[in-house]
Amino acid sequence: MNLFEKIFNYRMMAQLDEHGALAVTAQERRWLLMMLEHPEAAAALSPDTLEKLRQCLDGSDERYDSLRSIIVEKAGSASPSLYHPLLRTLRQMIVKKSGMQLSHTRKDGFLLPSQAGVPYKLEYSMVKREWYLLWYNRRTRSLMTTRLRSIHSVEEMPVSEEFFNQAAATLVQQLDKRMQHATIEIIPDYNKELSRILYAFSCFDKQVQYDELSDTYTIRLTFLGDETEYVLSKLRFLGLRVRVTDHPYMKFRMREAAQKSLARYGYSSALETAKHDNGVMSAEAE
Fold first, then answer.
1. Alpha helices in the chain, H assignment, sequence order
2. Comparing 213 with 56, which gets the higher pLDDT?
3. Domain 179-285 falls in which CATH fold?
């Protein structure tokens, strides 16, 4: 691309940005057509939004039929619905910075009394395949995580913007305390599979660095403490392609899994089994 083409493309993108327009590809239009045909589209999108999208795509030459005919899923397990009726209600509360009165059930099915709080964030767990609400409990002043399917009722309750911001700042601090970090090194022989490896960790916050001298990629993962098992499952899936460099507990768990696999097939491991307590391993295993 020469200099004049770069200038033209820059001006075109700047004009699109000024007018709030978004350039989409033919593939993206086909994907959007398929999404609008999904049975849950009517529930997930408001009628006005749904109608506006259909009008924008009306008369489009792209056909979702041709794309759908080449995508065939066989022996797929039954997956729960990705949409929940409370998603739109809770999202509007978060956008408007309002409070709520929430009633939900415990794991044993016992209905807890209504509690006042502030909705903070909606998260979808890739492990458990369901939506969660992160919210601030006004009575305990703590972070709460509740399954949307466990919510019995929720009502909007007005709060001041100052109180909402204070609650959000408190939750950010509490979430930071629960965060963990792990550095994962990609073995140079598998650099050609970088996209596949990054896709395995696509649901986590991460930073990728490249060292030219050693031809090595490193991934700095950030995740919650209760997501450690899911990260470990991805590491086992990737096998020889990656290794953990700075997380003692995860390194111990990977060693432990390797020892158990070797023992199952009659091989003795030279590594001694180390004891750990709540994620803290002994010095002998390090």
1. 3-18, 26-36, 41-44, 47-57, 64-69, 86-96, 161-178, 194-200, 228-238, 248-264
2. 213
3. Alpha-Beta Plaits (3.30.70)
